[in-house]
Amino acid sequence: MTEPRALPLVLAPPKGRGKPPRHLADLSAEERAAAAAELGEPAFRVKQVAHHYFARLERDPANMTDLPAKNRDAIAGALLPALLTPVRTLEADKGTTRKTLWRLFDGSLVESVLMRYPSRATICVSSQAGCAMACPFCATGQGGLQRNMSTAEIVDQVVDAAATMASGVVPGGPGRLSNVVFMGMGEPLANYKSVIGAVRRMVAPAPDGLGMSARNITVSTVGLVPRIRQLTDEGIPVTLALSLHAPDDELRDELVPINTHFNVAQTVEAAWDYARVTKRRVSIEYAMMRDINDQAWRADLLGDVLNAYGDWSWVHVNLIPLNEVPGSKYTRSRDEDMDEFVRRLEAKGISTTIRDTRGDEIDAACGQLAAAE
């Protein structure tokens, strides 16, 4: 890995209050028409702006030359207000991993990570400023929840990443953003309305959205069972990632406190039902912590828990070498323990991989950079 490179720090404005400014990505078709009327412009003006934003990934009014020059700034300013101000961008892996710390309109800090691989480019986005789930090994969870992000604040992270890929800034030449994972700051299903709104913008064809495949979008959750069931009925075939981290209630109560409300059996059953209804394989996320949850017997127990539903092909286990938080008692598992964990799960017929971690040296676990700030 290369040494991280950083952009200069942007000083913080005073923290404000209220809702994020209204943005094109927040608006339904009817609301877009109403916005045009408010501006005293024909409806097609909004469609022109939407084409620039979603199809051309353009946010600078100066480049929207099909808008009337005298009204260009006013039109773009009303529909595309600045939502994310970059505070700092760090690069690793020879520039193919880029982590950006963003400041929102009210001073809240969130993070996103763009990762380019040989066959794909993925953006990991935040859905909340902070998080209320209080998982003790997670940097974001230590700071509590500041607020939910709006649909547009989520979408704008994706548009920025897509524009970055298209510009050729990332080594490898101009490319296309192919994947989105909701694994940044926050619990996505605790901000259900905004997250689903953002997913709908991502999958809608231009100029109504980015035209991405729902199958390339992953929504992560620590296990909000009612929301998993709501997502099951949503009709959008995203990949569900369940952050399980322990196969037994005693340990999971400690690692994922929401488990005291929705236990392992209830959570896994809801995930299995999602797979059954959507025909989409669920990813079980399991952060590997030394001598905490990485014992061989827990691998066997995890296999038994997942196999309880008969058809093991419904699930894939993604073991994640823990990205350590300074000062935490939770540390990364030994390589040999992770290898044994894989062996035992595969012996029970469960597809298992160890995640290719990126950006350890730039605090790429979401929440670490904001906490340092």
Automatic annotation (TrEMBL):
<feature type="active site" description="S-methylcysteine intermediate">
    <location>
        <position position="366"/>
    </location>
</feature>
<keyword id="KW-0949">S-adenosyl-L-methionine</keyword>
<dbReference type="InterPro" id="IPR007197">
    <property type="entry name" value="rSAM"/>
</dbReference>
<dbReference type="InterPro" id="IPR027492">
    <property type="entry name" value="RNA_MTrfase_RlmN"/>
</dbReference>
<feature type="binding site">
    <location>
        <begin position="243"/>
        <end position="245"/>
    </location>
    <ligand>
        <name>S-adenosyl-L-methionine</name>
    </ligand>
</feature>
<keyword id="KW-0408">Iron</keyword>
<dbReference type="InterPro" id="IPR058240">
    <property type="entry name" value="rSAM_sf"/>
</dbReference>
<comment type="function">
    <text>Specifically methylates position 2 of adenine 2503 in 23S rRNA and position 2 of adenine 37 in tRNAs.</text>
</comment>
<keyword id="KW-0808">Transferase</keyword>
<feature type="binding site">
    <location>
        <position position="131"/>
    </location>
    <ligand>
        <name>[4Fe-4S] cluster</name>
    </ligand>
</feature>
<feature type="binding site">
    <location>
        <begin position="186"/>
        <end position="187"/>
    </location>
    <ligand>
        <name>S-adenosyl-L-methionine</name>
    </ligand>
</feature>
<dbReference type="InterPro" id="IPR004383">
    <property type="entry name" value="rRNA_lsu_MTrfase_RlmN/Cfr"/>
</dbReference>
<keyword id="KW-0004">4Fe-4S</keyword>
<dbReference type="InterPro" id="IPR013785">
    <property type="entry name" value="Aldolase_TIM"/>
</dbReference>
<keyword id="KW-0489">Methyltransferase</keyword>
<keyword id="KW-0698">rRNA processing</keyword>
<keyword id="KW-0479">Metal-binding</keyword>
<dbReference type="InterPro" id="IPR040072">
    <property type="entry name" value="Methyltransferase_A"/>
</dbReference>
<keyword id="KW-1015">Disulfide bond</keyword>
<feature type="active site" description="Proton acceptor">
    <location>
        <position position="111"/>
    </location>
</feature>
<feature type="binding site">
    <location>
        <position position="138"/>
    </location>
    <ligand>
        <name>[4Fe-4S] cluster</name>
    </ligand>
</feature>
<protein>
    <recommendedName>
        <fullName>Probable dual-specificity RNA methyltransferase RlmN</fullName>
        <ecNumber>2.1.1.192</ecNumber>
    </recommendedName>
</protein>
<dbReference type="Pfam" id="PF04055">
    <property type="entry name" value="Radical_SAM"/>
</dbReference>
<keyword id="KW-0963">Cytoplasm</keyword>
<feature type="binding site">
    <location>
        <position position="220"/>
    </location>
    <ligand>
        <name>S-adenosyl-L-methionine</name>
    </ligand>
</feature>
<comment type="similarity">
    <text>Belongs to the radical SAM superfamily. RlmN family.</text>
</comment>
<keyword id="KW-0819">tRNA processing</keyword>
<keyword id="KW-0411">Iron-sulfur</keyword>
<feature type="binding site">
    <location>
        <position position="323"/>
    </location>
    <ligand>
        <name>S-adenosyl-L-methionine</name>
    </ligand>
</feature>
<feature type="domain" description="Radical SAM core">
    <location>
        <begin position="117"/>
        <end position="360"/>
    </location>
</feature>
<feature type="region of interest" description="Disordered">
    <location>
        <begin position="1"/>
        <end position="23"/>
    </location>
</feature>
<feature type="binding site">
    <location>
        <position position="135"/>
    </location>
    <ligand>
        <name>[4Fe-4S] cluster</name>
    </ligand>
</feature>
